[in-house]
Amino acid sequence: MDGDILYSIGELARRTGLAVKTIRFYSDRGIVAPVVRTHAGYRRYAPEAVTRLALVRTLRELGLGLDVVRQVVDRERTLGEVAAEHAAALDVQISILRLRRAVLTAAAERAPTPEEMELMHRLATLSEAERRHLIDDFLDDVLDTVPDGPTGGSRLAGVRRSMTPELPDRPTDEQVRAWVELAELSLDADFRAMVRGLAADHLAEPPRGAPAPPRPDVVAVARDLVGPAVTSGVSPYAPQADEIVAALTARCARIHHRPDDGALRRWLLDRLEAVNDPRRERYFRLLALVNGWPEPDRLAPVLDWSLAALRTRAAR
To answer: Which option is the CATH number for 7-77: 3.40.50.300, 1.10.260.40, 1.20.58.100, 1.10.1660.10?
Structure first.
């Protein structure tokens, strides 16, 4: 190799920007081997060592271990294979870091107790199967009052789909925080009892001989009839509201096959008060965020108007 250009370790350091001790370390590990040693024992490297060291530095900066780097530069494994494996590993690490950041961000906003912090972390790091089990347990509990009638099963399936969160494989921080809060709600015994009562009313079979479901619930009826009044600024205490309240009670009586009387209005008040629990609306807003659905309309203004109007007229 008399006519070949050979580089000393110092020259390699100047050409690559690596420290001499770093190149010596790679040389000792067989990653960048000298082609010859001088009589004095100094190492000499072929020009290809510059390119090889550039690749080594890039792979190391990307986080690859020395054994993998050696396999790549020795062409025992392709760059594509190694890159795919390492990218997959980084995806896992990024997912874990994203979950941690979401939990810490939520903690900063809510200032939880140590016990609440532990629960938030546990809920955020559940596996997909564990998340599914938690939600199935919640839905099994709150929907266990489904009727045994011929249409009960199909309606139950629809309700379950409309209440099931599906956290995506690569959720945003906001979706993770929404999932944690939603999961906390699903574990709350009072919230479960409230949802169980609403589900029982919604899924109750109509009287024998009545038209088959689906039928709109009182919330949908109130939204259709009261929503325009809320938007236009009609007061629930104004005389103009009488006609709207009459239409609301008449339609609910017709749908639920009951007389339009004081008992119906008391039942309607109870039902709307139960639905107007802010936790219900919060659950569905969080659900939409987790699932990437459009943000649902706020029902509180419609429900507040309906309750005020019904109470005012019940007191007359």
So the answer is: 1.10.1660.10
